[in-house]
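Write out structure tokens for Acetylcholine receptor subunit beta-like 1 isoform X2.
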Amino acid sequence: MLNYMLLLFFSMNTQFLISAEMDERDINEQKLHEDLFHKNSYNSLIRPVVNTSSSLEINFSLVLSAIINVDEKNQVIITNVWLQMDWIDYQLAWDPSKYGNISKIKVDNKFVWVPDVVLFNNADGKFEPSYTPNCVIDNSGSVQFIPPAIYTSSCSIDVEYFPFDQQECEMKFGSWTFEGKTLNYSFSRGNDRMDLSDYMKNGAWDIIDVPGHKSTIGDSITGEPKSIIVFKLVIRRKTLFYTVNLIIPCFLHALVCLCVFVLPAHGSEKITLVISVLVSLVVFLLLLQKILPPSMTIPLIAKYFIFTFIMNVLEIIMTVIIIFASHRSPRTAIMPKWICWIFLYKLPKYLFMERPEHDKKWQKKNCSPPPSYPNTPQVPRANLFVRQPVPENQQRRQKPKTTATTSSDLRENERVNERVNAWRQKFKKSHSPGVTLSSSASGSHFSSDESPTIEMREFAPPNLPTNGHRCILRDPGTSQSEESLCQAKPSEISKLMAFSDPNLSPIDLTRELYSASNAIKFICRQMKNNEDYNTVLDDWKYLAAVLDRLMMIIFILVSLGGTLGVLINAPHILETVDQDKIIADIIKARN
């Protein structure tokens, strides 16, 4: 019980002593306040100088707390800052020993003269800080005034290198009413940079530098020079957001548009693809228009979008030309020789394109350049000579000729018979079964009173392929031969007759077989026409394929070159920003 009473006594005594000290301090501070502002008749509206002609020195510094927003569209920057101002008020000095060793007091700013510092380049009409805190006064008469503020200042945005841009925004502070002769602004402790000790990093911008300088401007009303403090905020945009959301999609659109040259030309998917990509690029341009302000210069990303847009339009034009070429036919147009030579013979070699049996067919056609390159396999054909029927009286006059044959002639006949038999087997496999043959060498033949005859001869000139058989039809009563598979030159016909054996006797045919031979002639001619027609169609389609490959290579090179050209022109694209290091260096330079 005794211990409890002692503890209660000591606690009450301690509280009494503390309250007594606080009461004494409050009394001394109240007395100091009365002496400074009432007894000395202090006026907060009068500039605190001994001589009215002298200038009052204002030490000014700016603490940047955060960059809230940079509005490129409206060309303003919103910042959270603290204004640090201090000056000497000779009327507010006192002796601490007379007031209980009080060295500092905090006074409402309405009791103290405060300079009318405003932001000259504000953009929202708020020239002064919205919140005015208390002033801190020490016994030497130094007054500190640190109002926080959120300023919306105008900033000229240069969008030439957007989104790889670096902006410089200025904040101009000065007195609204006092000229340079009455107020002189200078940097606190000679530090001409913003204070970044309390800065919160921004997710879209990096601080590069925050220099400041003192400037003098002329008053528009009085004409007197006015001292102002200008802080420059050098910031660089972080490009990750725009790279992911604008540049990469645009580049992928350009690559997708190149796929149009891979699609087949006879389909409508080519036009559908390029028009879809064109519409999506228009949407991206509209989004870009909402972000950027009107400017005298074209932004870098806008140049890239316009470049991609133009490439897309050119791809549409080339796609239309390619589709138009692929749908041409012998009934609508004839392919010029120079186009045939360039796009069907020369360019495919350099574009790594090869048609099946392209070179062999060219050589067989013996054209330079050939009008077409048939893809159908070459089939051996017989030499069919149809002659006039022999009259009966002439048949009676004809006598079998007997000739003395030597051993060399016998060997030659054996070779001929072997060639004829070998050819007959090929003929049966590759020709219609309705045509039958009889060997004149064996003596079997058809006879008729008035029937045309058909001679079947085989030749294989040394300068032609071994399977290069010709089919020659000759109408009765005429001596002109017409090739049903290709137009032979006179020299070739003479070679043909030279290699045919005149000792072979003709085969007599009936009128039905003669009609069948004419039908075969018509069928051969139709097959040739169909083959030539399809060959020309294939040539036009192959021309479209060559154009597709050529345009794809050209557009890939141009797209890559344009993309690299745009990226190389962007400044600071390869530079990395260490924000922590920059802030630490600025703080170290201030100290």
